[in-house]
Amino acid sequence: MSVSLILLNDTLRLHDNPLLHIADGGSAKAAVIVLNRHAFFAQQYGIKRANLQRLQQQLSVIRSLSNALAARNIGLITLFGDTAQSLLKLAQQLGATRLYCAKPVATYEYAAIARLSQQLSVTTLDCNSLLGTTSDPGLAKLPDSFTAFRKQYEPSLQVALPVDIAMPDDTWLTPAQTARYNADFTQLLQQYLPHQLQFKASEDAAMAHLKHYIWQQRHILHYKDSRNQLIGKHYASFSSSALALGSLSVRWLWHEIERFEQQILANDSTYWLKFELLWREFFRWQFRKYDARWFSKGGIQSQINFTAPVLNTDQQQHFRNWCSANTGNAFIDANMTLLNQTGLMSNRGRQNVASYLIHDLGIDWRLGAAYFEQRLLDYDCASNWGNWAYIAGTGNSQARHFNVQKQAQLYDPDGSFVHAITGVLAL
Ligand SMILES: Cc1cc2nc3c(=O)[nH]c(=O)nc-3n(C[C@H](O)[C@H](O)[C@H](O)COP(=O)(O)OP(=O)(O)OC[C@H]3O[C@@H](n4cnc5c(N)ncnc54)[C@H](O)[C@@H]3O)c2cc1C
After folding, report:
1. What is the distance in A from the centroid of ligand 1 to the CA of 107?
2. Are residues 262 and 376 in the same domain?
3. CB of 354 closer than 6 angstroms to any ligand 1 atom
4. DSSP H helix total and E strand total for the chain
5. Fewer CB under 10 Å: which end of the chain, C or N?
6. Quick one: 331 and 236 in the same domain?
7. Whose CA is nearest to atom 30 of ligand 1?
8. Where does the Photolyase/cryptochrome alpha/beta domain lie (predicted)?
9. 92 domain residue, yes or no
C-alpha cells in the first residue's frame, strides 16, 4: 500500500490546517514532524542557534499537537535530525513515495525540499500566508519597499477563510502504528521537558489568548496607541510566538480581527493590527525572493559576501556587554535584560537595541540577528533577519539610526520601565 508523508513542521495546529485535509486518493497518510537538529543545536558565528527555552517551547507545542491528534486516532511521528535525511529514511521504512508540506519561506526549508524532490513526489500547499495562491505576487515583480507592497496588494486583498478542523478519517496511521518511530522524541522530552516543568505553549493556549485579547477584553481597540509600550501584558497582541511556530494560523487571526470589526467596532487600532500582519507577510515574500542573500554581510543591497563577521578586541567586549545587558546604557540594558529573562522584547525595544548595536557600537548586524535568533521565543527567520537588515540599511530601507537617549525620553519618560526591569531608578 502506498503511503504519503504529511509534514506538519510549519503547521503545528488542528485549526486552519490544509495539510490535514489531504485526501490523496484514499492512500495511507503518516503525520510527521522533523525537529531540525541544526536549528536547535548548531551554532552560527560562534553563537548557539537556540537556547533551552526555545527548544522547550517547540517540544511543548509538538507534544500538545501529538496529544490532540491522538485524540482523533491520528499518530504523529516526530523525528530529530537533518530534515531531508530523516524524511528520506522514514519514507524508505514506510514505503512512502509522496510528501506534502507547507510552502516554505526560508533557505533551509527550500534546500530540504529540493533534496527530497529528487526521490519523492513533493507537493507544497499555501498554509501560512495572507496573499495565498490567488494573489501570489510572483517574485520577480515583488516590490522591495513595504509601502509599495502594501499599496499594491492591500486594496484587493481577499484572505482565504480558514479551513475547518479536519474530521478524522481512517487513512491516517494511528498512534499505535507510529509509536515505534518516536524514540528520539520521547528521549528529548524526558531530557528537556520533564513533567514537572509547566510550559504552556500550545495551539489551545494561543487561540484562547487571542480570543481574550480581541473579544473578551477588547484590548485590540487600543492597539495603535499602546503598541509602542515597552512592557506590560496587553499593549500588543503577543501573537508572534504562536505565528512563528505555526500553532496559530495567520488567516484565522486576520478573520478574527475582521469579524470583530464587523460585529463590534472597526477603528485605527483594529486596522493597525492587520497592517502589522502585512509587515510579516512582506518579509516572508521578500525571503522567498532573495533567499540566502539575507544572510550576506550587505544583505540584499550588495554583492554576496558570506564571510563571518570579524570583531576587534574592543568590539568583542562591546558585543558581550550588549548580549549580557551590560552596556552601561540603562535603556538598552533594560531591554536586553527583558529579552534574556523572558525571551521576548517589545518592537520599540528591538528597534532600539538593534540600532544601538549596529550604529552606536559599530558591530556587524548579523551578530545581533544571530543573538536574537538564539533568544527570541517568537524567532521567525524572515521577520528577524528582515528587521535587522532593515535597521542596518542592508534590507528594504535606508539605515535606521535611532537616538536611544531621545527614544528613552519619549517612550520611558519617567524611567519606570528601566526601574521595573533593573530595579534601578534612571537618573
Ligand atoms: C530587530 C528586530 C527583530 C525582530 N524579530 C522578530 C522575530 O524573530 N519574529 C517576529 O515575529 N517578529 C520579529 N520582529 C517584529 C516585532 O518586533 C514582533 O513581531 C513583535 O514585537 C511581536 O509582538 P506582538 O506579537 O505582540 O506584536 P503585535 O504588535 O501585536 O503585532 C502583531 C503581529 O504582527 C507581526 N509584526 C508586528 N511587527 C512586525 C514587524 N516589524 N515585522 C514583521 N512582523 C511584524 C507579528 O507577527 C506580530 O505577532 C522583530 C523586530 C525587530 C525590530
Report:
1. 20
2. no
3. yes
4. 19, 7
5. C
6. no
7. 237
8. 2-130
9. yes
Residue 253's domain spans which residues? 203-292
Regarding whether 1 and 106 lie in a shared domain, the answer is yes
Is 196 among the domain residues?
A: no
C-alpha cell at 408: 528613552
How many CA atoms within 13 Å lie on the side-chain side of 214? 28
Instruction: Give residue 345's identity as a one-letter amino acid code.
Output: M
Cα dihedral 104, 110, 115, 121 in deg (nearest 10): 30
Rounded to whole angstroms, the Cα distance separating 416 from 407 reads: 14
DSSP 8-state symbol, 296: S
Q: Are 166 and 74 in contact (CB under 8 A)?
A: no
314 and 413 share a domain?
yes
Task: Answer yes or no: is pLDDT of 199 > 70.
Answer: no
- 342 and 287 within one domain: no
345: Cβ below 6 Å to ligand 1?
no
- Strands of the sheet containing 28-36, edge to edge, are 76-81, 28-36, 3-7, 96-102, 121-125
| CATH assignment at residue 75 | 3.40.50.620
Amino acid type, 341: Q
Res. 426 pLDDT band, cuts 50 70 90: very low
The CATH number assigned to the domain holding 252 equals 1.25.40.80
pLDDT score recorded for residue 427? 46
Closest ligand 1 atom to the C-alpha of 250? 47
Q: Where is the domain boundary, 292, 322, 340?
A: 292
Report the residue among 378, 396, 401 best suited for mutation to probe ligand 1: largest number of ligand atoms under 8 A from its CB.
Answer: 378
Q: How many Å lie between the centroid of ligand 1 and the Cα of residue 401?
A: 19
Mean pLDDT on 278-292: 96
Q: What is the pLDDT of residues 334-384, one digit of tens each?
A: 999 999 999 999 999 999 999 999 999 999 999 999 999 999 999 999 999
In a domain, 257, yes or no: yes
Between the CA of 349 and the centroid of ligand 1 the distance, in Å, is 11
**Total domains, the chain:** 3
For residue 145, being part of any structural domain is answered with no
Q: Are 352 and 316 in a shared domain?
A: yes
Nearest CA to ligand 1 atom 16: 347
Distance CA 259, CA 261 (A): 5
Q: Are residues 316 and 393 in the same domain?
A: yes
Mean pLDDT (whole number) for 283-289? 96
Kindly report the protein residue whose alpha carbon is nearest to atom 37 of ligand 1: 276
